[in-house]
Amino acid sequence: MYQPNAFHDVSSWTAQHKSNRDAVSRRKIAARILILFALAAASFLCGTLVQVNASEEKAAATAAEPRKIYVEHGDTLWEIAKEIARPGEDIRKVVYDIQKANGLKNAYLREGQELVLPPRP
């Protein structure tokens, strides 16, 4: 007749306890990994939002500030206006805006002359 050994009972209890402990450890590791990924995603989103906000502020500041250029040999008001005009914008209006911003009575330019280019909304 088989008699249970005291060591047999202890060893089965130890094996079962170790199995439970391993399952708890795996759950803890999985939870830690999940938290790590959540923190990484939150950091990425915050960084992206900050970057988008900063670029929008920079674009708004740049659009609101008039630019200065110096006339080079061969430059004309028409060519300068074509470069800064928005797509579909009437070039004649842009030429007029440049003349008005610089107090020009005509379209004549001198090489080296400083021109203020009005901001384009």
From TrEMBL:
Pfam families: LysM (PF01476)
Signal sequence extent: none
Gene3D superfamilies from the UniProt entry: LysM domain
Keywords attached to this entry: Membrane, Transmembrane, Transmembrane helix
Entry's transmembrane regions: 29-50
CDD domains referenced in this protein's UniProt entry, alphabetically: LysM
Record bears the keyword Membrane: yes
InterPro entries associated with the record: LysM, LysM_dom_sf
Domain LysM: 71-118
Keyword Nucleotide-binding: no
Name by which UniProt lists this protein: LysM peptidoglycan-binding domain-containing protein
Source species: Paenibacillus thermoaerophilus
Lineage: Bacteria, Bacillati, Bacillota, Bacilli, Bacillales
